Structures are given as structure tokens and as C-alpha cells.
Amino acid sequence: xxxxxxxxxxxxxxxxxxxxxxxxxxxxxxxxxxxxxxxxxxxxxxxxxxxxxxxxxxxxxxxxxxxxxxxxxxxxxxxxxxxxxxxxxxxxxxxxxxxxxxxxxxxxxxxxxxxxxxxxxxxxxxxxxxxxxxxxxxxxxxxxxxxxxxxxxxxxxxxxxxxxxxxxxxxxxxxxxxxxxxxxxxxxxxxxxxxxxxxxxxxxxxxxxxxxxxxxxxxxxxxxxxxxxxxxxxxxxxxxxxxxxxxxxxxxxxxxxxxxxxxxxxxxxxxxxxxxxxxxxxxxxxxxxxxxxxxxxxxxxxxxxxxxxx
Length: 310
Known about the structure:
The chain is of the alpha/beta class. The chain is built from 9 helices and 12 strands. The strands form 3 sheets. It has a 5-stranded mixed beta sheet with strand order 3-2-1-4-7, sandwiched between helices.
């Protein structure tokens, strides 16, 4: 009797986008291919900054269990070579945990690296969602070597800036969402950063939903007000960073893209001291987070990148 040899599992890389509304998990055949062959998502536990430590810990472990199950689901039958996570928050220098987060406060100061690495036994990489957005556009999209400002408007607001210098690639996280607008948002609860007047408290998707119940209830004039605040933050950042390209990502930006992009282009048309950047939405739509996580893993695995088309 002849026995058939066992099939060698096909390998894959996992990209994770962790935000205040949902976690998206995708499996990719290689770090050079941004098209996932399997993906899934689950709702993030809703926790306020004022919640007790016990409530935050409980929510964290629920999210953690769901995350592990989602990874197992998308990678079934495959050997996992790496796992990369792009999260909505300020990541520690050693890339093991979130230092501060506005929308997933229950993940703060918890060692995500260990949680996942102990289960799957493969390299695990952690970075910010803004960082991932600009890397996705650099590796697989339209940024190339251009100085690029990536701006996320979703449950929260954030971003990052990337450019090549004599030292190589440099990526800087921005805390645009927590810039003080000097105007009270009207919220009854503070942002995760503790402010009632930061940009995120005004236009973060979580706060818009709290005020209107549903995005469908937002009037055009109200959207214009939100666009103006977002554009104000982009303009302020552009004056310092001097990008050639502004890439918009996040659920709110993607859903509002047809009105948002021309609005921001018009808003930035008055820039004179610095050059006016091109404004686009992410090449990867609502998958920008998982593709960006893949790009983050590719950078941290292989070092200096070669941008798309080079």
C-alpha cells in the first residue's frame, strides 16, 4: 500500500488593522503582493477613557481572543511567516505596546507583541496606523520617493509623514487628531487624550456618531464644517512637513471621498509659503490598514524599501 506524502503548508503573512470600530485581519501570499487571499473582521469592544481598569482589562482580553481566532481563520492551512499590526495609537519605541490611544484605550500599556507572538511563534511587528498608511502607498501605491503626508479620518484622527533623506527613509507619526482647536466640541465626554477641544473630539467618527446618532443624519452644511476642521489640520501639518502628496485613509475619509478630496484641494489652494500638495485617497480604500500593516512588516523585515515602480 502506497501512502501519499503530506502536503507542505503554503506560507502567508498576516496584516492587521486595529481601530476603534473594528479589527480587520488579512492573509497575504507574500510581502510583495498587496492583494489578500482571505480576510475577516470583528467589532472592537467599546470602552470609554473613564471606564474602570477591570472593564478595560475585560474588553482587552475579549478583543485579544477575537484577534487570535481571526488570525486562525484567515491563515487556516497555511504556515504564518509574520504578523504585522497597524493600530490606532502612539506605539512604544520598542514596538511592543500602545503608549496612548484615543479610541482603543483598553489596549494602552498592554503587551500586544507577547499576546500574539506566544500563540503563533513567528515574528510580530507593531506600528501606528498613520505609519502604515504612508508605507502602503510607498511600497504598493503612488507615493514612490515623494515626501508624503498620510492622514487618517475614521473613528479617530491621526497620520504620519514619510520622506527620504541622506539617512534613508524616515517616518514620523503625527498627533494631528489631538491638536487643540481652541473650541469646545460640545461633547459630554472627553477624548481619550483628555481634551474636549482637540480635533478628534470634533470630527472623530465616534464623536460624530455620538452627536448625530448616525452619519446619515449629518446635514451637508455640517459635513462642510467637519471637512473644514480636517482641512485646517492638514494645512497646519503641511506647513511644517511640506509634503508633495497627501494620502487620505480611514473609514470616514473613504466614505466621504467624492466630496472631501475636492474640498481639501480647494482649501489648500491658498498655500503660498510651501508648495501645494496633490491630494488623493488611499489606493487601497478600506483595505489600506491591512495592506499598510503588510508594508510595515516588509520594512521591518527587510530594511530600506524600494518604492513601487522602482
